[in-house]
Amino acid sequence: MKTAISSIAGYLPSKIITNDDLSKTLDTTHEWIFDRTGIEQRHLVSDGEFASDLGIIAAKKALEQINFDPSNIDAIIVSTTTSDRRFPSCAARIQGELQANRAFAFDVAAACAGFIYTIAIADSMMKSRQLQNVLLVCCETLSLFVDWTDRSTCVLFGDGAGALLLNAAEDDSPSGLVATKLYTDGSPEKYNSILSHNGPQNDNRGYTTMMGRAVFKYAIENMSASMHEILTENNMTLNDIDWIIPHQANRRILESLCKMKNFPLEKMIITTQDHANTSSASIPLAMCRAIENGRIKKGQTILMTALGAGLVYGSAIIKY
Ligand code: ACO
Q: Which helix (H) or strand (E) holds 221?
């Protein structure tokens, strides 16, 4: 069997904060943020709104698109590094709210690479356990984990969710996941200082800290390397790829990646300007937008790539 996408939806919370809004409380400007990152605005949760709330809305939209009965979902896999609570999981709440009573559900924490990790896990589980329908939800509220007085980090992040219903398609189906490739580099300097959620280890509400320039360099080098390896292992080149959907961290990272790979920027899906870095939700949100506006079409081949705190990174190739 092949793992194929039955439906995909995204959700961004209603509160929008522009760069100009931030400049009223921070020593920053729209020009600085836009020139360095390509970000124009971000959506943020309101008081009392958490990651699972965003995930539930995205999941319901994905199911309603194809009138799918939640009781036919076999498993729910949630990617989040900003879970509502340390436990229970966001996945358990989403399962309960959807009344997906047959589904087992669990969270995966792989930061901004969470979409690549969870689609790889879903694919393996669908094959090994013969699951028919798996709901993948990426829901993140980074805004609750940044210091809103630290201009070097808070301007980069936003909140959002994406959800995909995956189904087991026949081997000869024209659509489906082609391959995934996952990596982790947890060496001490990467784990502790490049990009992490700092605070006492038992404190759920520390702050995100980052060495911006080092992250920039690692993101380009490692996303590039993982793209190269997944293509080579599958006897493909970038000429076989219709679209690249990268993790939407920063437009300058994405422009540099295209330049390095000699890949046309027009064939990369970029939505960073509209929702900033929404961690693992960013690839499904970008994909959803590109399908809605008619850029991505059925049968096209998409290369996805991401890197996040850990460092964790990886790539996936899917025929839509
Ligand atoms: N507004 C105005 N000035 C600022 C701001 C801001 N929001 N933030 C930092 N500055 C200042 C700094 O204080 C510094 O001032 P100084 O020269 O007086 O000391 C100056 O701008 C330059 O700071 P740098 O950090 O060197 O700026 P840089 O050009 O590297 O840009 C940035 C910073 C945008 C964070 C860049 O390093 C970057 O894009 N890194 C990648 C980070 C990223 O995308 N992280 C996302 C999470 S990881 C992931 O998802 C892959």
A: helix 212-233
